[in-house]
Design goal:
Immunoglobulin-like, binds copper (II) ion, binds zinc ion, zinc, SOD-like_Cu/Zn_dom_sf, copper
Length: 234
């Protein structure tokens, strides 16, 4: 608070010299290490009369600058997203669940995905971000894997891979896959943003690009899309 008090005193002198402004913005945006993050701080002259500046000043906090539905491109605040995965409806399985995504320091750093998927056949299932968020034809219209760098399909730890390549989730004998993934390539802001794109679970395992055929280098041979949802901000 000391720095703010200094700023207010400094502004008092400035305003006393200029003596023609009703209020001056002291601090726009998000002061670090402050519980007043996202609020602007003003000094306002008193009394508040249009066209008149007295020599008495009062600090005023502006309203919080809520980021709203538009992803921040930078900043200290985590971004949270959620995908509600529903069965594709074309098969006999009934896989579904909720995956939450959080990125503590967007647009840099890992995204943490977590949640449970139920109704799966035991074993591995390919798990990807697909490029589109269009569900008009179910999971089919979500397009191919999100691949802004135009490289081959790979596994999550490969240096070259689709941004959307999250590897496999593994269901136990009870058909439940407990998802706990930390991924360094997808982001909730910036050029690798996955907000508004599709999250897809496949019928079979993803071979991570090691299958030795052309399909492996595009989809990992993970088979049908059995459940999907849209990655949305919350
Ligand atoms: Cu996929
Ligand atoms: Zn891929």
């Amino acid at each position: 608070m000391n720095s703010m008090r200094l700023a207010v005193i400094g502004l008092w002198f400035l305003a006393a010299i200029l003596n023609n402004a009703d209020s001056v913005l002291l601090n726009e945006g998000r002061p670090p290490h402050s519980h007043l993050a996202d609020r602007s701080v003003y000094a306002r002259s008193l009394p508040e009369v249009f066209g008149y500046s007295g020599n008495l000043y009062q600090p005023v906090y502006g309203p919080p600058l809520y980021p709203g539905p538009i992803p921040l491109t930078a900043g200290p605040h985590p971004i949270n997203a959620v995908a509600i995965l529903k069965p594709d409806g074309t098969g006999t399985e009934d896989p579904q669940g909720v995956i939450t995504l959080v990125q503590p320091h967007p647009p840099e750093g890992p995204v943490f995905l977590s949640g449970n998927i139920t109704g799966l056949t035991p074993g591995k299932h390919g798990f990807h971000v697909h490029v589109s968020g269009d569900l008009r034809e179910g999971c089919q219209s979500l397009g191919p894997h999100h691949n802004p760098f135009l490289v081959h399909h790979g596994g999550p730890t490969d240096p070259y891979r689709h941004v959307g390549d999250l590897g496999n989730i593994v269901a136990g004998e009870d058909g439940v896959a407990k998802v706990q993934i930390s991924d360094h390539l997808i982001s909730l802001a910036g050029s690798q943003n996955v907000i508004g794109r599709g999250l897809v679970i496949h019928a079979g395992p993803d071979d991570l690009g090691r299958g030795g055929d052309t399909e492996s280098l595009q989809t990992g041979n993970a088979g049908k899309r059995i459940a999907c949802g849209i990655i949305a901000l919350y």
